Amino acid sequence: MPRIGSKRFTESYILAQLLAQQTLRQTGRAPIVLQGLGNTAIVYQALRAGSIDLYPEYVGTIALEILKSPNPMSLEQMRAPLAALGLGVDIPFGFNDGYALAMRASDADRLGIRTLSDLSRHPELRLGLSSEFIGRADGWGGLARRYGLPQKPTGLDHGLAYDAIQKHQVDVIDIYTTDAKIDVLGLRTLVDDQGYFPRYDAVVLYRLDVPARFPAAWAAMRTLAGTIDERAMIAMNARAELDGVPFDVIARDRLAAPDATPGAGDTESYGFWRKLTGPDLGRLAWQHLMLVSVAVGIAVVVAVPAGVFVYSRRRLRAIVLGMTGLLQTVPSLAMLAVLISLTGRIGAVPALAALTLYALLPVMRNTCAGLDEVSPGMRMAATALGMTAAQRMTLVELPLARATIVAGVRTASAIAIGTATIAAFIGAGGFGERIVTGLALNDRQMLLAGALPAAAMALISELLFELLEWRLRRSSGKAGPAHA
User: Fold this and answer.
1) What residue stretches are annotated with the ABC transmembrane type-1 domain (predicted)?
2) pLDDT tens-digit profile of 103-140?
């Protein structure tokens, strides 16, 4: 079955689920959905690399961001240049979700601001814009030049922008015109009086071989063309953002009763406990555990022998530990971006590579520290018994350093459990999947539903390592704590 991706905002999650649920309804088989993969650059790269087969996109984004066209393009105009990239575009859903700027309606009335041209006369206003919008070809740079806007925007996650403007932390934010919170929070959408923004009709961007590889699934998904208007999309977004209804439930309800008033029959409560104990808990726990276990296991296999090798070579030891220490300073998302570029993939492979690199330093450092703790007398005694250097290391030094090495593995595991939550940004799963969704919805309960299980896993890990280190200290006759 095809692998469907989505970006990290409410509407993209819902559209991906609509494609998946419609396929399941008509074929009896569920596609794989890799949700919340980040911005256009990451999802598009995943599509080109074959990590996903299709994802919901917008014609304005395809024209300006992907095809680098200075002008809007129709679907027919896009097909030839996309085909040269091995891609196709189809399934226009039936609605336009454009970019716009919005501010509190009360402030707009007080300052007499109705259009984007009016905004240029108020340099004192604080703009909080999403990082993607600031960097897009059709985003802030061109908009500021077109309207002569003097403000200096601050980068802000789209999911947090509505909270920020409600709390008067910013005055103007970028919005999608089908966002559910525009009217609820009393915001005024500023008129694009010079026609800067193109149309952003929602479509599906796919690999050209998808219709041939998955004919039944593709035929099912194509039945969604022209079935969703702006009103319906706003209502579905509202169910997710205001009522906390899961994306798959929204999609199923829409497909089961497309003409029903969305949310009219909602009686179920989607509170914190239900989000915490949701049906995805077991899957996410297993994914998180596997990411951490495999990454730390690889780090141990690499770092312990490397620590033994560089231990007696002081200059090389300083260089190697310095290089692994340098890796710790690289931000997680930057590391993932580099690894995606190097591997040409998203998902578990770059996530495991990143977690392994972060786990190397504590294991290698503690291996060297543990060997440092072995007394010269023990080494001399082993040599006097006729042991070779390899035998002395294997039978004497490493067993004596074992507790300290385990303490390094303990530290590496704690780092990996926390860092693994970032892996969800590239489709590797784990508890970070809930955190990413919570950020997209600005849903604190969903954030906690991801953070608390991760914290519980870290606590269980600490307890297990504490028990293991106690047993090692007891067996080796040490009373003091192991070197961390």
Assistant:
1) 285-465
2) 999 999 999 999 999 999 999 999 999 988 998 878 89
Side chain identity, residue 407: A
Quickly state the pLDDT bin for 448 (edges 50, 70, 90).
very high
The 10 Å CB-count burial string (b at 16+, else e) for 119-156 is: beebeebbbbbbebbbbbebbbeebbeebebebebeeb
Mean pLDDT calculated for residue range 251-261: 85
Domains and CATH numbers, the chain: 3-95+201-256 (3.40.190.10), 99-189 (3.40.190.120), 280-475 (1.10.3720.10)
